[in-house]
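Take a look at the protein record below with the fold in mind.
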Amino acid sequence: FLLGLHIALTYKPIIQFLLLMTVIFHAALGIRVILLDFNLVNVKYRNLLIVGLLGLGLIVFILIWNSIYA
């Protein structure tokens, strides 16, 4: 749905904001799954891991957003 909106309304900042947030959230969850499945992080730290990855995703989001709209 967001991809279709992005194609139709390419230069709308709110659409780019939502698409970027969706991609970063999806990437953070994917990295979490990989780290837990390969036992690179102990399962008891899964809540801390998701908070850390989403925090890292927020930093990446701010860097990308500022490079586009600053």
Summary: The two ends are 27 Å apart (CA to CA). The helical segments are 2-8, 13-37, 46-69.
